[in-house]
Hints:
It is found in: Cell outer membrane. Belongs to the outer membrane factor (OMF) (TC 1.B.17) family. The protein has a four-stranded antiparallel β-sheet with strand order 1-2-4-5, with no helix packed on it. A two-stranded antiparallel ribbon has the order 3-6. It has nine helices and six strands, in the order H-H-E-E-H-H-E-H-H-E-E-H-H-H-E. The N and C termini lie close together (12 Å). A hairpin with a 7-residue loop joins strand 1 (45-58) and strand 2 (66-83). It is an alpha+beta fold. The chain is elongated, with a radius of gyration of 39 Å. It is 66% helix and 16% strand. Helix 6 (229-249) runs antiparallel to helix 7.
Amino acid sequence: MASAEDLMDIYKEAYVKDPIVLQAKANRNTALAAVDEATAALLPQIDVVGSLSANHTSIMPGTNERADARTASAGINLSQALWRHASWASRTIAQKTAAQQDLVYNDALQNLIMRTATAYFNILSARDNLTFAKAYQEALRLQLNEATRRFQVGLIAETDQLQAQADYDLSSAQVIAAENQLINSYEELRKLIGRTTSDLAELDAKRFSPMPVQRSRQNILQTAEENNLALQAAIIGRDIAKDNITLAQTGHEPTLDLVGSLSTSYSDYSTEVPNAQEDGNTHEGTIGITLNLPVFHGGAVTAQVKQAEEQYVVASENLENTHRTVVADVNNGYNNVSAAISSVRAYEQLVKSAESSLRSVKAGYEVGTRTMSDVLDATQSFYSAQESLSAARYNYIISRLSLLYTQGTLTVADIEAVNRGLID
């Protein structure tokens, strides 16, 4: 019998199959190639050229006088930018864009950990909910049978039997909803790995023990401001926008290029006219400097500068928004972890209390001091408490990982630690 797939099995497969990560990787590689392209504009440009031509000319129509010529030529053209501020600015922008895309790619990797863990534990949560829903349904079925038997012999009123029937019917609808939720949860996981799965390792509830955050809120916020990948990418985005202003302003600046060429040609003349050109080789070499000074281009450069300045405002506001989001996420994440720990402890106690209460109510019902409605309410409370405890455990795990992600420090080691808390 094959063992159940665990969180690490799913993550390793998602790492090589997830479209979002693969897209981010391709974007990073594209940006790196753009750096080489921008650098090329600063390096010598060398072209080898050649031509072969034949020419036939009739000197005098109606006579045999003609001039034929065949010419072959080859040469090398060279150009080297001496001063092109735009090319240097473009290279700087390309380098920063590559650095930004590298951050985006690494953020996608951390986000993959979050999406994998979230999808995985959503399945476990939905599976638990279905288990509890079926157990609740079975408990209500037994109580319905008991209520029907008692009603038939006149021990309880018809209203008690009808209440038991209504609660059982409701539980059947809840089972259907839980089954549908589980199916949908599996679909979310399929989006990551491109296939369906059914047998997943479950959380070892007996060994599960939530740990409080060891660092202060302010310390975590400082780490996030220094390492959050989305924030770092936004900082570079603002810098790129500023460099784009410089690039646009270069449209007013002169350019200076070194140009040179070296060529040789051979001509073969075949003619029947006097004083025709002689066959021979021709060699030619040139070198010079080309200066281009923009004077007026219809206001295009001014418009480009204005656009770049407005884009800088956009990038600056995006940075501010990203920073505020990070601060909010840190505070929310810190609160969520603390609340999740308290919730787990509270629900653990609630499950114990609800179980004791259910036993007590059932005993009271047997001796006639409690009604069927009391039993149904106690049963519902017991299974609801179990469902809430299960959800609180998963919520703690996701909240803890999310806080690490907000700090920009989430690694594979973190989900390996979570994975050690799973059992087949």
